[in-house]
Amino acid sequence: MSAKRNDTPHDKLPIRMLHDRVLVRQENGEGERRSGGGILIPATAAVGRRLAWAEVVAVGQNVRTVEPGDRVLYDPEDRAEVEVRGVGYVLMRERDLHAVAADRFEGSEDSTGLYL
């Protein structure tokens, strides 16, 4: 089974994930962000433990719940960073993911598009 199941912008990565590993790319940096009401929150603002969203780039052969292109929710404090061709990625185990959001969930009955 191939490490990449769908065509993604990262198809040319010279890497193959093993076992239950998932390689993701963070959606936004650690910089400023906006609240739901449009308020600008500076990067230096202290917040509690905050989970982050990322896009799945590659998965190992034993990963069953996510595919490349899915968005996943994870804890940024429990991560291992790696750089491939000058781009930073996060490497983690499938069990460290908290949620999956994917377009393929939209067509199923009683689905919110978010798998927790």
UniProtKB/TrEMBL annotation:
Keyword tags: Chaperone
Pfam families hit by this protein: Cpn10
Entry-linked SMART domains: Cpn10
Record flagged with keyword Chaperone: yes
InterPro entries in the record: Chaperonin_GroES, Chaperonin_GroES_sf, GroES-like_sf
UniProt keyword Repeat present: no
Molecular function GO labels: ATP binding; metal ion binding; protein folding chaperone; protein-folding chaperone binding; unfolded protein binding
Reported function: Together with the chaperonin GroEL, plays an essential role in assisting protein folding. The GroEL-GroES system forms a nano-cage that allows encapsulation of the non-native substrate proteins and provides a physical environment optimized to promote and accelerate protein folding. GroES binds to the apical surface of the GroEL ring, thereby capping the opening of the GroEL channel.
Assembly, per entry: Heptamer of 7 subunits arranged in a ring.
Similarity remark: Belongs to the GroES chaperonin family.
Entry protein name: 10 kDa chaperonin
Biological source species: Streptomyces griseorubiginosus
Gene responsible for this protein: groS1
